[in-house]
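Retro notes (design track)

What went well: tokenization of the new backbones is finally stable.
What didn't: we kept losing track of which sequence belonged to which structure.
Fix going forward: every design gets posted as structure first, then sequence, in one message. First example under the new rule, 115 residues:
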């Protein structure tokens, strides 16, 4: 089970759910390997302008951060089994969850209640 307090996110790919985590180090590795900023990647995925290689790179780093030891070949097989649309959707959710500052949203909601 993923621990959101540690930045862990559950990603459902087919019949399996995987624990993932994108640390700052992982985000830097993704940006370096793909030569794009993480926000640029998230935008491209949301606009359906994503390459399979991008999905593999993001998933590899996220899965390894979650304690899984998958190589590109295994991740490619998973994407092939679930389909590119499902994989893209899950990667998009993963990036949104990772890049969203949930603490600030909770603070805003708390201030609304106090007002």
């Amino acid at each position: 089970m993923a621990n959101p307090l540690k930045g862990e996110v559950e990603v459902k790919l087919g019949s399996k759910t995987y624990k993932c985590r994108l640390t700052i180090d992982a985000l830097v590795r993704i940006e370096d390997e793909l030569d794009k900023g993480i926000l640029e990647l998230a935008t491209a995925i949301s606009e359906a302008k994503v390459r399979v290689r991008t999905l593999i790179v993001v998933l590899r780093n996220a899965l390894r951060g979650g304690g899984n030891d998958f190589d590109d070949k295994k991740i490619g097989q998973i994407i092939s089994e679930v389909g590119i649309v499902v994989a893209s959707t899950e990667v998009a959710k993963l990036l949104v969850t990772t890049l969203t500052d949930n603490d600030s949203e909770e603070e805003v909601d708390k201030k609304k209640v106090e007002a």
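Added context from the reviewer: The helical segments are 24-34, 38-46, 52-65, 72-82, 84-99, 102-114.
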